[in-house]
């Protein structure tokens, strides 16, 4: 289905939990309140929403959170979503810490691709950013994903005071590995508003000085990233420039929070609740609200004007 600006909405990010085994300082502050467990949608409810969304053109879903791998038996949801008529692709974004443990089950369930978030190659900095000493587990998760031969993307958020100087080492991962290393600009959502974004323009300048020409390439995916490949690289480097890039023109997504609200756009507080109607068995109403969410998508986000950002919750509560 198209929204009022002619954008085809084909992609839904499904948050399966607000819980996480890490505490990235820009996403999940220590004092974050947990959502009541009974408010989280069950797997059956999530699949039901996916079925109705597929009727209106959703073709790809990405599981996110919080950390999707802390949701018990998450591979069962992967398998159930893969079986939904119309859904062609089920992927996941994870911090990777539990990935090696669950890789077999996820791949058997049909997971099509994985994004692993890894902001640093240094365990001490990992501790500083995430509050956890699990760098090696995350690294092993990445290696396990590569061994499985599914498409792998690495998500990196640079922060000026901590890991900005790692742009080269992180980008170098794509020299010999078949991965897309993507630099995501920090978005002023929740605790993220306390940090400055490292701009794509700055990064491109550094990268081209060291790696030479950055040839634009196409990489399969559903998001707004732009990719380049320096000479001699096996993989690619991506930019997700929420603040400084033309992010919204091709926006194709809806977001479903873990408690069953549809968000037409990340930066505004508007959410369309589905859970009540779902639990009352009123699927016609749920379907109507999915259509409403697509119709209600705004033209663009407002991250360049922080005062206009009305979403007050943390990224982990929304679903990043
Ligand atoms: N736990 C999983 C993970 O880390 O990939 C999935 C959820 S996490 C919220 C999804 C992505 O959002 C991660 O790559 C994370 O770095 C990114 N993220 C979180 N807060 C952000 C912010 N304020 N600005 C930009 N990206 C953010
Ligand atoms: Fe957890 Fe992912 Fe947020 Fe980090 S970015 S706290 S891993 S949800």
Indicate the low-confidence ranges by residue numbers: none
Helix/strand class? alpha/beta
Q: Mind summarizing the main beta sheet?
A: 12 strands, mixed
Strand content: 15-25%
* Nearest-integer average pLDDT: 94
Topology:
Layout: E1 11-15, H1 43-55, E2 60-64, H2 74-82, E3 89-94, H3 99-109, E4 113-117, H4 123-130, H5 135-147, E5 152-157, H6 167-176, E6 179-184, H7 200-211, E7 214-217, E8 226-230, E9 236-240, E10 253-256, E11 261-263, E12 272-273, H8 275-279, H9 283-295, H10 315-318
Parallel strand pairs: 1-2, 1-10, 2-3, 3-4, 4-5, 5-6, 6-9
Antiparallel strand pairs: 7-8, 8-9, 10-11, 11-12
Helix pairs in contact: 1-2, 2-3, 3-5
The chain binds S-adenosylmethionine and iron/sulfur cluster (SF4).
Task: Explain what this protein looks like in three dimensions.
The relative contact order is 0.17. Helix 2 (74-82) links the parallel strand 2 (60-64) and strand 3 (89-94). By secondary structure, this protein is an alpha/beta fold. Helix 1 (43-55) packs parallel to helix 2 and helix 2 packs parallel to helix 3. 31% of the residues lie in helices and 18% in strands. Strands 7-8-9-6-5-4-3-2-1-10-11-12 form a twelve-stranded mixed sheet. The mean pLDDT is 94. Iron/sulfur cluster binds next to helix 10.
